[in-house]
Amino acid sequence: MKSRFKWALAPVAAAMVLLLTGCTDQLARGFLPGEWGVTNHTDRITGLWTTAWIVLYAIGIIAWGLMAWAIVVYRRRKNETGIPAQLRYNNPIEVLFTVVPLILVIGFFAFTARDMAAIETPTENPDVNVQVIAKQWSWDFNYVDADVFESGIQAQFDGQEGVPETLPTLYLPVNKSVKIDLSARDVIHSFWVIDFLYKKDMFPGKTNTMYFTPQIEGTYAGKCAELCGEYHSLMLFQVKVVSQAEYDSYLATLAAKGQTGQLDTTYDRNQNLPGDNPEIRG
């Protein structure tokens, strides 16, 4: 009896360990990069992620506890011989094994769809409009409202992990709603700011859009998240979230350097996409 009680306490002890260690901020965020509130969407994404893991761990603890209980209670005793009674099927258990996963799948889908809809909802009259154009293997940034641009080169390595000063840098003002139009000059790329916990693919001949509000000043690492060729690993960039004054100063610097106007499709490698040449009819 004491032995059975000891085995029954194992799942409870495991749950207590998880509960107590959950006090750390890193574990509370599910080991995701960044911190709370980096953008207006990151807490929503973090909540979905951690809630899913809590549900799955709870189910795991129940399943592991039942397995341990069955192993102990139905173990072979001394002097027992032969094969124990066999059950061909058990309707209640089979219904349980069908219904519970179905509820989980529907629940995960519903909450994911809810959060995706919120993240993808367009912002009316955003404060900042930016166009990001991906290219092998770097980035171009059009600051649409100020009519200036920045054209980047791929990361330069010199026996180090990387030299941040050489990376293309996208400046954004803190606490301002941002709309970013995403496109590509050659092949499929993906725009990923790691701490923003969200990424979106970039296609030649098609524009995707992201909407968010950066809420914490700082420098955030970004990279292409779609394998795009030989130097994909060098396709890095930074996002600097700064004050409005510093943002305005940076745009004035671009204008002073003569980087006025907008980079367009002139330098796109694909010049035969549908609609590019009205004289060509498929």
Describe this structure in words.
The protein has helices spanning 2-21, 25-28, 42-73, 91-120, 244-256; strands spanning 128-135, 138-143, 148-151, 169-173, 178-184, 189-193, 198-202, 208-212, 218-224, 236-242. The chain is of the alpha+beta class and 282 residues long. A five-stranded mixed sheet has the order 3-2-1-5-8. Helix 1 (2-21) packs antiparallel against helix 3 and helix 3 runs antiparallel to helix 4 (91-120). The chain has two domains: 2-75 and 88-120, no CATH class; 128-267, Sandwich (Immunoglobulin-like).
Keywords:
282 residues; alpha+beta; Immunoglobulin-like; 2 domains
Break the fold down into its secondary structure elements and pairings.
Elements (H helix, E strand, L loop, with lengths): L1 H20 L3 H4 L13 H32 L17 H30 L7 E8 L2 E6 L4 E4 L17 E5 L4 E7 L4 E5 L4 E5 L5 E5 L5 E7 L11 E7 L1 H13 L26
Parallel strand pairs: 1-5, 4-10
Antiparallel strand pairs: 1-2, 2-3, 5-8, 6-7, 6-9, 9-10
Write down the CATH class of the largest domain. Mainly Beta
Overall structural domain count: 2
Structural class: alpha+beta
Say how many strands there are: 10
Helix proportion of residues, in percent?
Answer: 25-40%
Q: Please report which band the strand proportion falls in: under 5%, 5-15%, 15-25%, 25-35%, 35-45% or over 45%.
A: 15-25%
Order of helices and strands: HHHHEEEEEEEEEEH
Distance linking N and C termini = 80 Å
The biggest beta sheet is recorded as: 5 strands, mixed
Provide the CATH topology of the largest domain.
Answer: Immunoglobulin-like
Biggest sheet strand line-up? 3-2-1-5-8
Q: What is the residue-mean pLDDT, rounded to a whole number? A: 87
pLDDT < 50 stretches: none
Tell me the overall shape. elongated
